[in-house]
Write the structure tokens for this entry.
Amino acid sequence: MNSSKERRKVIKAGGGIGLLGLLAAAGLLPAGEALAQQQWNSGAFGTRNLADAVKALGGTPPTENKAIQITAPDIAENGLVVPVSVTSDIPKTESIAILVEKNPNLLSAVFEIPNGTDPFVSTRVKLAESTDVYALVKADGKYYFLKKEIKVTLGGCGG
Amino acid sequence: MTDPMRIRAVAKDGKVDVRVLMSHEMETGQRKDSKGVIVPAWHIQTVTATYAGRTVLSAQWGPSVSKNPFLNFRFLGGKPGEKVSITWTDNRGEKRTDDAAITAG
């Protein structure tokens, strides 16, 4: 039972590319080693626009998809702490990324969603100024996004 | 020395809802100190959550995740009394792992 589950994971990992493939490949290793193998993708975190970020994550150009939900305030009083939740209703969601368009570096966070984990994450991010926030979802090898505008009264950078 | 995470894992309707509050500066590398010198970036880069030997969530973070990061996610399975373990590593190579027992919802 358990080993067949592992096998499925391995097969899935074989289909991955770029960063996600790399992380998935780490899944080939026993749990303990996999943790140590998880690498931070400095390339993706240095990107400054959505197209580059997706490319660095190893993906094809994303399409907008309303099956993604972003829960965040319309107006954030403090750009330093803005709660953002993303839920994906797209089947076979594999990863969820949060990107902030007008931050110095676009990519905030990438979450890998293994089988058995809800396609939902909630965290808090910094926004430099009023901006569009993107949720980028990878599902069944394809990329989808949804954006939401958040107005910031006090920026989260500098100071 | 790093401070412990606060982890709450609650089993409800066949799922475990995990909320984590980490203690970390999450310095962006954009800010200047009073002398005008840029404060170097110092932030959590990877987060891994494990339950019963399998990874239930893994994440990579940039410096734009807020100071003292909050994280909420849910996974299937898990019974009260079992453990959920969270590990983070930052860009200075610091690493911290904390466990929490799942409680009944």
